[in-house]
Amino acid sequence: MNPIIAILKEHDVNDAKINELFQALTQNPLMAMSIVGQLGIPAEKLQQLMALVMQNPALIKEAVVELGLDFSKVEAAKAQLQQ
Question: How far apart are CA 26 and CA 37, in angstroms?
């Protein structure tokens, strides 16, 4: 299992919320950050999660693929943020 998804499940985030989070990530990354804030994950675990993503950004792609979402939308959203 993807470590991002594993951390979310460890904090009792259900599959529907995980899918909602990654769906938001593929469409609107700022919205995804809002959803992360609502998950109730302790700050120290959230920092660990962010460090994990920063050290290995490919984990996001792996999680998106594992959930059956379209990674090309993540790339498009990333390009929009860089403009």
Answer: 17
**pLDDT tens by residue, 35-60:** 888 888 888 888 888 888 889 888 88
Burial tier of 66 (Cβ tally within 10 Å: 0-12, 13-18, 19+): middle
Residue 74 CA to residue 24 CA, distance in Å, equals 9
Distance CA 8, CA 17 (A): 9
Question: Could you tell me which of 53, 62, 67, 75 has the C-alpha nearest to residue 19?
Answer: 67
Q: What is the rounded distance in angstroms from the CA atom of residue 26 to the CA atom of residue 47?
A: 21
